[in-house]
Write a structure and sequence with these properties.
This is Halobacterial output domain-containing protein. By secondary structure, the chain is an alpha+beta fold. Helix content is about 20%, strand content about 25%.
């Protein structure tokens, strides 16, 4: 079991192919939240994922996203997914190449 403190989870089914988790950045680092959310979204073990630092500078990600009150989001590719980490604690994961569920 991981030491990640997941505050709330919004089901993937509710958002189409996007998976979204919310964290308390004072208890969990954004980089740990990203790995946990991607693992959950893809059904993979976190240790089976590529190293996050190969996709993004993890110290910079943690510092930027933890900046309080700035409303910042960082989006990048990781493990075949588009990942967005937000300063409000939200991590969104969408598989790359997923069909858009755009309304007509």
């Amino acid at each position: 079991m991981t030491d990640v403190d997941r505050v709330a989870v919004e089901s993937s089914a509710e958002r189409g192919r996007e998976h979204r988790d919310t964290y308390d950045w004072t208890a969990t680092s954004p980089s740990a939240g990203v790995v946990e959310t991607v693992a959950t979204a893809t059904g993979r073990d976190p240790l089976a994922l590529p190293q996050l630092y190969d996709s993004v500078e993890t110290d910079a990600l943690d510092s930027l996203v933890r900046a309080s009150g700035c409303g910042l989001s960082v989006t990048f590719g990781f493990a075949g997914c588009e990942v967005t980490a937000e300063s409000d604690g939200t991590v969104s994961v969408r598989p790359l190449g997923a069909d858009d569920d755009a309304e007509p």
